[in-house]
Specification:
two-stranded parallel ribbon, about 210 residues, mainly alpha
């Protein structure tokens, strides 16, 4: 069971007034979702041609304040990736990742279907990446501050993703996510989004 995530009464407050009209994640989700459709189609074909299993990978994750959400990704690992091991933390150079998946992870292409989660309101463009319940509970036992990441709507990209990604250990990711939440600003979001775009285009800095 995931414990209370706001012992200090600290909640994320989204921008209000004219900022809300300008910075509206569902609208951005629709726009970028449409733009990303041809890319998703191309990689869906590549996945189908190069590995067995479904094109998309769906999984339940922990959303805002512990709410269950379902995310969809382009499948980047073997279809039987966790058949013998169960839920495990993804790492850099993970042997379960397919050749096409390696490129998708490097450029974040595998995350593109999650624009649908943004349109639904389960996710935002920027925020801590949503983690699985079983891993969230496991990490919470070792690092009590881990569930503090749930104080804000999870994001398609985040501060931790552009400063380590798959190289990060859970406690390191937790520190970066909580730093983002404690220092949230609209400008900070745009900076993270810009750095993410650079990774998508060049692959530089990706893990």
């Amino acid at each position: 069971m995931i414990p209370d995530v706001t012992p200090n009464g600290v909640f994320y407050l989204p921008p209000t007034g004219w900022l809300t009209s300008f910075y509206n994640p569902p609208i951005f989700g629709i726009i970028f979702g449409i733009i990303s459709l041809p890319i998703i189609l191309i990689f869906a074909i590549l996945i189908k041609l190069t590995s067995k299993g479904p094109v998309f990978f769906r999984q339940e994750r922990v959303g805002y304040m512990g709410k269950p959400i379902v995310i969809t990704k382009l499948r980047s690992m073997r279809n039987d990736a966790e058949k013998k091991t169960g839920a495990v933390w993804a790492t850099k150079d993970d042997p379960r990742v397919t050749p096409v998946g390696k490129f998708m992870r490097k450029t974040r292409v595998d995350e593109l279907p999650q624009f649908w989660s943004i349109i639904k309101g389960d996710m935002s463009l920027v925020g801590p990446r949503p983690e699985r319940f079983v891993l969230t509970e496991k990490f919470t036992e070792k690092w009590p501050n881990f569930p503090q990441r749930l104080r804000i709507i999870p994001g398609l990209t985040g501060y931790a993703q552009i400063h380590g990604g798959y190289d990060l250990k859970p406690n390191e990711k937790c520190k970066l996510d909580n730093y983002y939440i404690d220092n949230y600003s609209l400008g900070f979001d745009f900076k993270i989004a810009f750095e993410t775009l650079k990774i998508i285009v060049t692959g530089d800095g990706a893990r």
